[in-house]
Amino acid sequence: MVRRTPCDAGVSVVTTTWCERENIAELIKRIRRVLEGLEHEIIVVDDQSPDGTASIAEKYADKVIVNERRVGQTLSLARGILEARGDCIVTIDSDLENPPELIPELIKMLGKYDFIIASRRILPRISEKIASIMFRGRLGVRDIYSNFKAFRGEYAGIIALVGCGETFGAEFTWNAVRHGLRVGELLYEPPPRRRNPRIGGVVRANFRIMLANLRLLKCLLTKR
Fold first, then answer.
1. Does CATH place domain 11-222 in 3.50.50.60?
2. Domain residue ranges of the chain, discontinuous segments joined by +
3. pLDDT of residue 191
4. How far apart, in whole angstroms, are the C-alpha atoms of residue 93 and residue 99?
5. What is d(CA 101, CA 160) in angstroms, rounded to the nearest whole number?
6. At what angle do helices 170-178 and 73-83 cross, to 10 degrees?
7. Is 4 helix (H, G, I), strand (E, B) or coil?
8. What is this structure's pTM?
C-alpha cells in the first residue's frame, strides 16, 4: 500500500499494447494491488491489436483508447500521457518485463526528481548497449529505451511533445533533459524476457533499435 507520496492527489499509469491479450489482465491486476489505497487510473492505448487485446483491457482498465491506425509505441504512449489526469504519471510496458511492484519506489523518488527512469541493470541487446554508450552522457541514464518511467503530471505536455519518429519512448527522456527537468534513475534486475518480444526477434529487434538510435541522434543534434 502506498501512502504519503508526492502523488497523493492521484497517479495515472499509462501502457500501450500490441497483441498483449495474454498479459494485459495480469498487468492491470498487479498495478491495482501496488496502488491500493492511493487514487489512481490505468490507461491502455491499443495500437490496433488484431488479437482482441482491447476488449480484454476494457474489462480491467479505467480507460482504453484504440488508435485509428497503427502508429507505434512512442506516439501511442504520448497519446495516453496527454489523456492522463494524475498529479504523477507512470508509463510501463505491457509485456510484464517491467515489474509493477517498483511503481511505489518510482513515485516516491518524485519527491526528489521531476522525471525518473527505471533502468535494467543488464541490457540484453547489442543495439541497446550501443545506445547506452552513445547517449548515456547526454541523457544521464543507462537504459535509453526503457519505458518504465515516472514523472510529474505538470510536465506531461513537455514530455509528450514528440516528432522524431519511433524512438521507442527515448524521446520522452530527451524532452525531460532538454527542458531542464531533474532526471533520476532506479536500477533493477529485470525478469526473464518472454520468448517472442513485441519488437521482434534478435535480428529484427536490433535493426529497429539501431534505426531508433539514428533518429534519436538526429533529435539531439537538431533540438538544442
1. no
2. 11-222
3. 82
4. 9
5. 25
6. 60
7. coil
8. 0.91
